[in-house]
């Protein structure tokens, strides 16, 4: 993301101007803007004007509007964010207080002003504007009859294609049905690979599966590349990497990212780190259950005793439209940092973030054991 | 507490009555857009007609049914050819076969038409399929599930009843299957489904292949061909395994990848053999086979070191034995194989038996239900003929298998058959394979496919290699279905009697028994839900209570996490709706396994459908 201007006062209020340049930047924008913020950008507005004769004409005008955001919708596939809200700045075409929707797209400049830029928002801004970003990887997760093509970037995992075809089983005396269906399946997957992977952008393409599906598919892919003379495949042959996974479902991505061979390639990506962090939480839960807490209440309680060594929290919680609630989360994060603990904000688009989200969205590894809450007060342990 | 009492007694009848399933609305759970609805939901008028035409022409009844219908459908019985309606949207065409097929018997003239409309269907299917491939799961739960379930009082559910009763005693339902089955029980050997399990390379395929050869199921010529061909590939030792490992990939690599099926007979039994793969990556396939099995042969490799590595934690000897036990197998033959490599050492045999005995006892097997047999799949010793001049005086492998007791079959219960394979047969229609879990079926009968909620008619039934007029619970069958689009069929779909359909759900409450896992289970824990022949991603949504493994008493409510070897009541959300049954209604269809990252995490019983 390109930072065009930044003007914050001491109290933390102010505005920044940004231009999202990549898919991932849209995700950052989505996480930066909260309900109540003021967003300014160019937009198209249909204006109806009445002439002196009484006939009305309507035309579409391009204008710059500032709205106070009331709802935010993010479309990962179209890579677009839709902000709805009321106009808060005088404008020749739009009345004050009138509703308007701004569709924000890639490379569209906007400026965002907040009453208070809290630490989480500022961190997010720094990450988003950091030019040294890790390269994307593509992961093709397969099993017989099922394949998913995911693009993993630093902050997002996006499924680009999901292919499911029923493959007849081998039957006594005849495997032709099975073999033919499998060949057709590989053909479809190859089409998806060609359509969805930008070979110039991705650093490597992981092909993962249980058994020999991955080997068979790579064999098929290379054979077809020669047969049909598909240059892009031949040139990028070295980017393919075979990895073992236990299934063709998306949850296997966790195993894939934790695979040592992949870890080397990924070095220090956020996705792999999150997998590691969540794993260490589970290991702690197994070995010393009194040092692994989850659920907002329990974690807050642990924080009161300055016990948190590492806080795991999903970014989903910070998107809460309840300002007071968001502030409590931010306060927790700040307090953990102040007491020397580390904070991992998980992306809810990654598989491990998805899992953390289902585990109340918040978990903590403690420095020292604390007694468990008594059972009776457990009623809201799974709220959120 | 109600919950806790239920668990202990495993009596869940009070949890669910029929009013409950019929009274449910699924609309809220599976939201569909109006566009989808208009594409997939057939107007009632149409459905009614499609069904009514199953009936023999019964002037009064058919007319009254026919009148209020739309043009397309009312045209069906009278105008066999439909060129007059080229503008009909394809979904109407798709439902066409189901309108007309059943008339085939009565009106031979129409056969041609049927073929036409069928080719229509097929083309429709292919294009539909192609356009679907990238963006969405081709097997996604069909929205047409909804009409029947969401409008409980309307035709789709009641109609089949009408159909059946009106057909009873007439042309199709000639056979009184139950009494035929009684006769068969008296005159023929009972059938038993046997799964062969064990660690990779224990010699399962070789053992069973050799047994089949010795029993005369493989010709000398074929055997000779396998011998020379396997030699050419440098896999000479796999010649007997080739009898069961038939795909090129399996033969090249010398590893079984999917279940192979064969039939053979022993003195008192007809055996349906399911040879499972041992490699841990293929456990999903092994589960498919084990779910269909009544009894099992556990093969272990007696070679020094090999038994040990298969028996270690992480080896499949343990995992497989526990899996089949959790899936309802209680009788076991343990084949201690490759005895030739330890020169038939009695000490080795005894050593292995001792180790397995204590493990299997812990795993929930009764000692009296297990037989230990030393053998060699390679040399063929002690497979069909007993050993002479040896320390071992017990039965041969075939004799031990012959002593399995066939389990009682729930033939009186409603018809259920879980689809394990779908393929295109030679003639018209689509073939599906599976084991009949309960009830019976006969050719010509109309059955319901769930979760698609589509009626289809069973054209032919193959049991083994032969066509049979009927089949009952416990039989392995291939059914040719007509009047249904292939997109409505999926692995794991259940064929059931229209009067008593199985439930469809993506949220269940279950009692699970947790295996020896490394990391604890919490709420939000992702798993793969293995049920019959499907495996679907799922999430453990809520940990309701931890219960005692033996008594089922609640130990702790709302536990924070579940650790190894404990038992609990949990709620599981499956990523898409499946057709499931309560354990109390049908044991085999009420069981499932949970796996994560290649390890079996837990076995479960469905105690409530939510
Ligand atoms: N010496 C000896 N070798 C055997 C015996 N039985 C099997 N083998 C060898 O063990 C190897 C594996 O045999 P398979 O039958 O493929 O084993 P499997 O258990 O079916 O293996 P998967 O299905 O892949 O798990 C082959 O090389 C066989 O020749 C035996 O009784 N004695
Ligand atoms: Mg085998």
UniProtKB/TrEMBL annotation, chain A:
<dbReference type="InterPro" id="IPR005142">
    <property type="entry name" value="eRF1_3"/>
</dbReference>
<dbReference type="GO" id="GO:0070651">
    <property type="term" value="P:nonfunctional rRNA decay"/>
</dbReference>
<dbReference type="GO" id="GO:0071025">
    <property type="term" value="P:RNA surveillance"/>
</dbReference>
<dbReference type="InterPro" id="IPR005140">
    <property type="entry name" value="eRF1_Pelota-like_N"/>
</dbReference>
<dbReference type="InterPro" id="IPR058547">
    <property type="entry name" value="Pelota_N"/>
</dbReference>
<dbReference type="GO" id="GO:0070481">
    <property type="term" value="P:nuclear-transcribed mRNA catabolic process, non-stop decay"/>
</dbReference>
<comment type="similarity">
    <text>Belongs to the eukaryotic release factor 1 family. Pelota subfamily.</text>
</comment>
<dbReference type="Pfam" id="PF03464">
    <property type="entry name" value="eRF1_2"/>
</dbReference>
<keyword id="KW-0963">Cytoplasm</keyword>
<dbReference type="InterPro" id="IPR029064">
    <property type="entry name" value="Ribosomal_eL30-like_sf"/>
</dbReference>
<dbReference type="GO" id="GO:0005737">
    <property type="term" value="C:cytoplasm"/>
</dbReference>
<dbReference type="Pfam" id="PF03465">
    <property type="entry name" value="eRF1_3"/>
</dbReference>
<feature type="domain" description="eRF1/Pelota-like N-terminal">
    <location>
        <begin position="1"/>
        <end position="130"/>
    </location>
</feature>
<keyword id="KW-0479">Metal-binding</keyword>
<dbReference type="GO" id="GO:0070966">
    <property type="term" value="P:nuclear-transcribed mRNA catabolic process, no-go decay"/>
</dbReference>
<dbReference type="InterPro" id="IPR038069">
    <property type="entry name" value="Pelota/DOM34_N"/>
</dbReference>
<dbReference type="Pfam" id="PF26356">
    <property type="entry name" value="Pelota_N"/>
</dbReference>
<protein>
    <recommendedName>
        <fullName>Protein pelota homolog</fullName>
    </recommendedName>
</protein>
<dbReference type="InterPro" id="IPR042226">
    <property type="entry name" value="eFR1_2_sf"/>
</dbReference>
<dbReference type="GO" id="GO:0046872">
    <property type="term" value="F:metal ion binding"/>
</dbReference>
<dbReference type="InterPro" id="IPR005141">
    <property type="entry name" value="eRF1_2"/>
</dbReference>
<comment type="function">
    <text>Component of the Pelota-HBS1L complex, a complex that recognizes stalled ribosomes and triggers the No-Go Decay (NGD) pathway. In the Pelota-HBS1L complex, pelo recognizes ribosomes stalled at the 3' end of an mRNA and engages stalled ribosomes by destabilizing mRNA in the mRNA channel.</text>
</comment>
UniProtKB/TrEMBL annotation, chain B:
<feature type="compositionally biased region" description="Polar residues">
    <location>
        <begin position="113"/>
        <end position="122"/>
    </location>
</feature>
<dbReference type="InterPro" id="IPR027417">
    <property type="entry name" value="P-loop_NTPase"/>
</dbReference>
<keyword id="KW-0547">Nucleotide-binding</keyword>
<protein>
    <recommendedName>
        <fullName>Tr-type G domain-containing protein</fullName>
    </recommendedName>
</protein>
<dbReference type="InterPro" id="IPR050100">
    <property type="entry name" value="TRAFAC_GTPase_members"/>
</dbReference>
<dbReference type="Pfam" id="PF22594">
    <property type="entry name" value="GTP-eEF1A_C"/>
</dbReference>
<dbReference type="InterPro" id="IPR009001">
    <property type="entry name" value="Transl_elong_EF1A/Init_IF2_C"/>
</dbReference>
<dbReference type="GO" id="GO:0006412">
    <property type="term" value="P:translation"/>
</dbReference>
<feature type="compositionally biased region" description="Polar residues">
    <location>
        <begin position="150"/>
        <end position="165"/>
    </location>
</feature>
<keyword id="KW-0648">Protein biosynthesis</keyword>
<dbReference type="GO" id="GO:0003924">
    <property type="term" value="F:GTPase activity"/>
</dbReference>
<keyword id="KW-0378">Hydrolase</keyword>
<comment type="similarity">
    <text>Belongs to the TRAFAC class translation factor GTPase superfamily. Classic translation factor GTPase family. EF-Tu/EF-1A subfamily.</text>
</comment>
<dbReference type="GO" id="GO:0005525">
    <property type="term" value="F:GTP binding"/>
</dbReference>
<keyword id="KW-0963">Cytoplasm</keyword>
<feature type="compositionally biased region" description="Polar residues">
    <location>
        <begin position="76"/>
        <end position="88"/>
    </location>
</feature>
<feature type="domain" description="Tr-type G">
    <location>
        <begin position="189"/>
        <end position="409"/>
    </location>
</feature>
<dbReference type="InterPro" id="IPR000795">
    <property type="entry name" value="T_Tr_GTP-bd_dom"/>
</dbReference>
<dbReference type="InterPro" id="IPR009000">
    <property type="entry name" value="Transl_B-barrel_sf"/>
</dbReference>
<dbReference type="Pfam" id="PF00009">
    <property type="entry name" value="GTP_EFTU"/>
</dbReference>
<dbReference type="GO" id="GO:0005737">
    <property type="term" value="C:cytoplasm"/>
</dbReference>
<feature type="compositionally biased region" description="Polar residues">
    <location>
        <begin position="133"/>
        <end position="143"/>
    </location>
</feature>
């Amino acid at each position: 993301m390109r930072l065009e201007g930044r003007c914050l006062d001491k109290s933390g209020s102010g505005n920044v101007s940004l231009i999202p340049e990549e898919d991932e930047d849209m995700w950052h924008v989505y996480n930066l803007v909260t309900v109540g913020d003021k967003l300014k950008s160019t937009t198209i507005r249909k204006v109806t004007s009445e002439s002196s004769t009484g006939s009305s004409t309507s035309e579409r005008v391009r204008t710059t509007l500032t709205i106070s955001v009331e709802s935010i919708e993010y479309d990962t596939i179209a890579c677009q964010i839709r902000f709805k809200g009321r106009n808060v700045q005088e404008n020749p075409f739009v009345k004050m207080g009138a509703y308007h929707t701004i569709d924000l797209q890639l490379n569209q400049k906007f400026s965002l002003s907040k009453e208070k830029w809290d630490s989480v928002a500022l961190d997010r801004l720094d990450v988003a504007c950091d030019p040294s970003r890790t390269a994307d990887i593509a992961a093709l997760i397969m099993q017989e009859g099922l394949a998913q093509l995911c693009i993993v970037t630093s902050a997002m995992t996006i499924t680009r294609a999901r292919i499911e075809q029923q493959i007849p089983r081998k039957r006594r005396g005849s495997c032709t049905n099975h073999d033919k269906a499998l060949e057709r399946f590989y053909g479809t997957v190859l089409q998806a690979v060609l359509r969805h992977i930008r070979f110039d952008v991705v650093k490597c393409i992981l092909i993962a599966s249980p058994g020999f599906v991955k080997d068979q598919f790579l064999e098929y892919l290379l054979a077809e590349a020669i047969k049909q003379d598909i240059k892009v495949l031949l040139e990028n042959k070295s980017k393919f990497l075979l990895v073992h996974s236990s299934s063709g479902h998306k949850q296997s991505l966790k195993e894939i990212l934790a695979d040592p061979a992949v870890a080397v390639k990924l070095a220090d990506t956020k996705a792999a780190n999150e997998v590691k962090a969540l794993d260490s939480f589970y290991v702690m839960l197994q070995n010393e259950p009194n040092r692994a807490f989850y659920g907002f209440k329990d974690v807050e309680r642990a924080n009161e005793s300055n016990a948190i060594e590492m806080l795991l929290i999903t970014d989903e919680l910070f998107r809460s439209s309840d300002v007071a609630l968001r502030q409590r989360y931010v306060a927790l994060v700040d307090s953990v940092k102040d007491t020397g603990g580390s904070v991992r904000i998980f992306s809810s688009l990654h598989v491990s973030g998805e899992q953390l989200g289902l585990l109340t969205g918040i978990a903590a590894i403690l420095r020292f054991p604390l007694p468990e809450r008594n059972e009776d007060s457990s009623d809201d342990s799974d709220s959120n | 507490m109600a919950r806790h009492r239920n668990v202990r007694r495993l009596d869940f009848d009070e949890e669910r009555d029929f009013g409950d399933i019929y009274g449910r609305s699924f609309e809220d759970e599976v939201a569909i857009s109006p566009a989808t609805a208009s594409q997939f939901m057939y107007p009632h008028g149409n459905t009614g007609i499609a069904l009514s035409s199953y009936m023999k022409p019964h002037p009064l009844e058919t007319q009254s049914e026919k009148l209020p219908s739309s043009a397309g459908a009312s045209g069906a019985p009278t105008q066999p050819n439909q060129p007059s309606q080229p503008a009909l949207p394809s979904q109407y065409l798709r439902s066409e076969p189901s309108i007309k097929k059943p008339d085939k018997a009565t009106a031979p003239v129409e056969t041609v038409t049927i073929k036409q409309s069928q080719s229509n269907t097929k083309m429709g299917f292919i294009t539909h399929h192609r356009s679907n491939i990238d963006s969405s799961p081709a097997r996604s739960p069909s929205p047409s599930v909804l009409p029947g379930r969401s409008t409980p009082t309307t035709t789709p559910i009641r109609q089949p009843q009408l159909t059946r009763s009106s057909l009873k005693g007439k042309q199709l339902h000639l056979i009184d299957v139950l009494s035929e089955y009684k006769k068969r029980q008296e005159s023929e050997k009972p059938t038993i489904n046997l799964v062969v399990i064990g660690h990779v390379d224990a010699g399962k395929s070789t053992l069973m292949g050799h047994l089949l050869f010795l029993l005369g199921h493989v010709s000398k010529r074929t055997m000779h061909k396998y011998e020379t061909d396997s030699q050419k590939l440098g896999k000479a030792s796999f010649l007997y395994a080739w009898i069961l490992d038939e795909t090129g990939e399996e033969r090249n690599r010398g590893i079984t990848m999917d279940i192979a099926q064969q039939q053979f007979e022993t003195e008192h039994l007809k055996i349906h053999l399911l040879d499972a793969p041992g490699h841990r990556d293929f456990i999903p396939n092994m589960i498919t086979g084990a779910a269909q099995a009544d009894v099992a042969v556990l093969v272990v490799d007696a070679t020094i070191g090999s038994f040990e590595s298969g028996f270690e934690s992480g080896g499949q000897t343990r995992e497989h034995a526990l899996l089949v036990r959790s899936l309802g197998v209680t009788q076991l033959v343990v084949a201690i194989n490759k005895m030739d490599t330890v020169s038939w050492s009695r000490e080795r045999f005894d050593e292995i038996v001792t180790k397995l005995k204590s493990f299997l006892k812990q795993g929930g097997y009764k000692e009296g239900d297990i037989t230990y047999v030393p053998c060699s799949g390679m040399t063929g010793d002690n497979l069909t003929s007993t050993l002479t001049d040896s320390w071992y005086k017990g039965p041969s492998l075939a004799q031990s298998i012959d002593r399995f007791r066939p389990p009682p079959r729930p033939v009186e219960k409603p018809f259920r058959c879980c689809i394990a394979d779908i393929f295109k047969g030679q003639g018209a229609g689509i073939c599906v394979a599976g084991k009949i879990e309960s009830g019976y079926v006969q050719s010509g009968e109309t059955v319901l496919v769930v979760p698609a909620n589509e009626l289809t008619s069973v054209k032919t039934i193959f049991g083994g290699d032969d066509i049979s007029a009927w089949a009952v619970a416990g039989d392995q069958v291939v059914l040719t279905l007509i009047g249904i689009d292939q997109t409505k069929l999926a692995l794991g779909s259940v064929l059931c009697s229209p009067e008593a359909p199985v439930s469809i759900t993506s949220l269940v409450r279950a009692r699970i028994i947790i295996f020896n896992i490394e990391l604890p289970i919490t709420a939000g824990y992702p798993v793969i839900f293995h049920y019959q022949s499907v495996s679907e991603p799922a999430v453990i949504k809520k940990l309701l209570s931890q219960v005692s493994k033996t008594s089922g008493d609640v130990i702790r409510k709302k536990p924070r996490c579940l650790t190894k070897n404990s038992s609990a009541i949990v709620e599981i959300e499956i990523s898409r709706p499946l057709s499931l049954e309560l354990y109390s209604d049908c044991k085999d269809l009420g069981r499932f396994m949970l796996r994560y990252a290649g390890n079996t995490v837990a076995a479960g019983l469905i105690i409530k459908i939510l």
